[in-house]
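Lay summary. Proteins are chains of building blocks that fold into shapes, and those shapes determine what they do. In this project we predict the shape from the chain. Here is one chain we studied, written as its sequence of building blocks.
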Amino acid sequence: MNIIYNEDCIITLNRLKDEYIDLTVTSPPYNIDLGNNKFNKNKYDVYKDDISYIEYIKWLKQIFTLLYQKTKNGGRCVINIGDKSNGKIATHVDVINFMREIGWLQMTTIIWNKQQVGNRTAWGSFQSPSSPSFPTPFEYILVFCKDSYKLKEKGEVNIEKQDFINWSLAIWNIVPEIKMKSYGHPAMFPIEIPLRCIKLFSYKNSIVYDPFMGAGTTGSSNTVECILYW
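And here is the predicted shape, written in a compact code that computers can read:
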């Protein structure tokens, strides 16, 4: 069963019971002004994606502080995030730092290798050490837990043996979503990411939450109950 709250996720979180959520799987907006740059004209319809970086990190910290309160002891939180400006701004480091300040324990860092380089044109100073550019064909999947690295409750496992073996290696080779225009969303993650996270980090019948629902990918990943926001 999927429950969708079409409202600001801070409103939703304030309404939820404390220690209610088993697992969060999410990918925050990139804050790179999607839709108003030369690369992507399919902009967000309700979210302002060009606030200052300091505001952006402060806003995320507010959400994940509330989320900590609403997550069960032993519950997990998975955040897919990419760095900005070809690695010049290490967004994932700032996220890790504020998550630790909140109280989250870092469980692991998974590298999402997009296997997507394309035609290289943004070289910076081509064939010169003056100022070379380093496009990043990967993102981070940061996994945190609350109070304990081990789940506090027992449940029914929902993962096959070979999938567990393959997915428990901390580099995932997954091609990005290629049908974003048909879904009307500029920055979807592929369904394979939430599917793996849900099976790896929660039991069947767990309550899975995504504060930045986007096109609803998390809710399409064989969850039993998802509370979703966009």
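What the prediction tells us: Strands lie at 2-5, 21-26, 71-81, 105-113, 138-145, 171-173, 207-210, 225-229.
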